[in-house]
Specification:
- By secondary structure, the chain is of the alpha/beta class.
- Among the domains are: 59 residues; 223 residues, P-loop containing nucleotide triphosphate hydrolases (Rossmann fold, 3-Layer(aba) Sandwich).
- The chain is built from 18 helices and 18 strands.
- Strands 5-6-7-3-8-9 form a six-stranded mixed sheet, sandwiched between helices.
- Helix 3 packs antiparallel against helix 4, helix 5 packs across helix 6 and helix 12 crosses helix 13.
- The two termini are 37 Å apart.
Length: 518
């Protein structure tokens, strides 16, 4: 069991965590939620012993194994299967000892312990985890260094899942996964036999896996029983109750202040007036959430163009002499909301590049509207923002014909007041940089937004704001995302990228999820 007892942690004299208390015992499936920067990753580091608390105690029961996903990507000549088996140090040590042991009594102990830790099924268990995360039999035996960074991060996740610690720490485990693999991980965690603490901004993933919530806000942690939607319902009701309480307190304060103003100059009433003034000072107001400008997304309306904005027939796509996709046929209207689904590596990003006009077709017929403007949100763009310039100057470059006032007005759509717009990009948070990138991409009022994993740097509140903004946007949207809540609330129809081609899916996201399970 893990116990945190009134712990506090300070950064630069500022309290990031204050008097935090909670316990995690067996079979606890907990979601740790809170805004970006609230201290979730700091709490993970404290639990792992990487950070020392300034106050309070962290108690871990003997033999209670805690494990997090390794941050460094696995590499080298080992295969994914061999790498996973190597991570179980107790099994490796016992198997090595078994080869050289001559003591009959010790041999008995070794065999008994190997049975206890289920050592003889280790290889099959490792293979099952790897296959679930997208590694077929051939890929499980390839050298680690032959995989992309995203797939090596999957191997790090697989290693943690394979070891089945008493407490598994998962920090955004779906960030490098496609929709299909996220669905597998969701099922795996829903049956996990021990405990885990999960940081995720994917509300559907949380709802399907957890049985309680730790809400981290303003340095405090509150615990709620149930899934994420249950927590949200209770939390919103608490906020409404607090708001009503504060309204009553304000009415009482105004009534008492009116008495003081009326009678403070009268000698006969001065004592009562002084008493009322002291009572006013003692009135306590409870902080309640207010609308937060830091979650702002507001896409400018594009010019209306006649359909179709884009049509293609018998198109083949690829790189050099390698065909990735072939026989592609589709028509895109100005108000489309399309979700691209399919396993990573099947060609979704290749298709997105073609739709954005960044990749020419090998063959086939393509028709684009002459006035079509496209904004393409790519995963790698986030890392290439000019960090030594201000947000204002970065957006001004994207709006070369705009006046400074127009640039600041556009920045305001994305929650950047003057003081924030004049900050260097390197001083902005991950969520702020994501909003800045959206501000740049939409500066020319595009008719089509192509979004490839747009939520990787957004917390849950910002994702909700993005959903609202996309639903208000009057142009077309093509969406690649593992966030099912986003996909469910934005996409009107699905295109499946599979078997080197594109197929419209007859059904909604629920139907597609059922087809994966089948």
């Amino acid at each position: 069991m893990l116990s945190l007892n009134r712990i506090s942690y300070f950064i630069g004299g500022r309290s990031l965590l204050e008097n935090v208390t909670f316990q995690i015992a067996q079979n606890h499936r907990i979601g740790l939620v809170g805004r970006n920067g609230s201290g979730k990753s700091t709490l993970f580091n404290i639990i792992q012993g990487k950070l020392t608390v300034d106050k309070g105690d962290v108690e871990i029961a003997k033999h209670f194994k805690i494990l997090a996903i390794k941050q460094e990507m696995p590499s080298g000549n080992l295969s994914p299967l061999a790498y996973l088996l190597e991570q179980d140090q107790e099994r490796v040590t016992l198997m090595n000892e078994l080869d050289n042991c001559q003591d009959p009594n010790r041999l008995g102990d070794i065999y008994e312990r190997l049975i206890q830790i289920d050592a003889y099924t280790a290889e099959s268990r490792a293979a099952i985890v790897l296959k679930g995360l997208g590694f077929d039999d051939e890929a499980q035996l390839r050298p680690l260094h032959t995989f992309s960074g995203g797939f090596r991060m999957r191997i790090a996740l697989a290693a943690a899942l394979f070891q089945e610690p008493d407490l598994l720490l998962l920090d955004e485990p779906t960030n490098h996964l496609d929709f299909e693999t996220t669905q597998w991980l969701q099922t795996f965690l829903s049956k996990y036999p021990k405990s885990f603490l999960l940081i995720s901004h994917d509300r559907e993933f949380l709802n399907a896996t957890i049985n309680s919530v730790l809400h981290l806000k303003s340095g405090k942690v509150a615990r709620y029983t149930g899934d994420f939607d249950t927590f949200l319902t209770i939390y919103e009701q608490q906020q409404a109750n607090i708001s009503a309480y504060n309204t009553r307190m304000e009415e009482q304060r105004a009534h008492m202040q009116a008495f003081v103003n009326r009678f403070k100059a009268k000698a006969s009433k001065s004592r009562q007036a002084q008493s009322r003034m002291k009572a006013i000072e003692k009135l306590k107001f409870i902080p309640v959430d207010q609308d937060d400008p830091t979650v702002a997304f507001n896409f400018p309306p594009p010019d209306i163009i006649s359909p179709p904005m884009l049509a293609f027939e018998k198109v083949s796509l690829g790189y050099d002499d390698t065909i990735i996709l072939k026989n592609l046929n589709a028509t895109l209207s100005p108000d489309e909301r399309i979700g691209l689904v399919g396993a990573n590596g099947n060609g979704k990003s290749t298709l997105a590049k073609f739709l954005a006009g960044e990749l020419d077709a090998f063959s086939g017929e393509v028709k684009r509207h002459g006035k079509l403007k496209i904004a393409f949100y790519r995963q790698d763009q986030f890392e290439h923002l000019e960090t030594d310039r201000t947000a204002f100057h970065v957006v001004a470059d994207a709006m070369p014909k705009a006046t400074p006032t127009q640039v600041r007005s556009h920045l305001g759509r994305f929650g950047f007041p003057k003081e924030k717009a004049d900050q260097l990009v390197k001083l902005l948070s991950g969520g702020e940089r994501a909003r800045l990138l959206f501000a740049c991409l939409t500066a020319e009022k595009p008719n089509l937004l192509i979004l490839d994993e747009p939520t990787n740097h957004l917390d849950m509140e910002m994702r909700e704001s993005l959903i609202a903004a996309l639903n208000d946007y009057t142009g077309a949207v093509i969406l690649i995302t593992h966030d099912r809540h986003l996909l469910q609330h934005v996409a009107d129809r699905l295109w499946i990228v599979k078997n080197k081609t594109l197929t419209p899916f007859e059904g909604d996201l629920s139907d597609y999820t059922k087809s994966l399970a089948a």
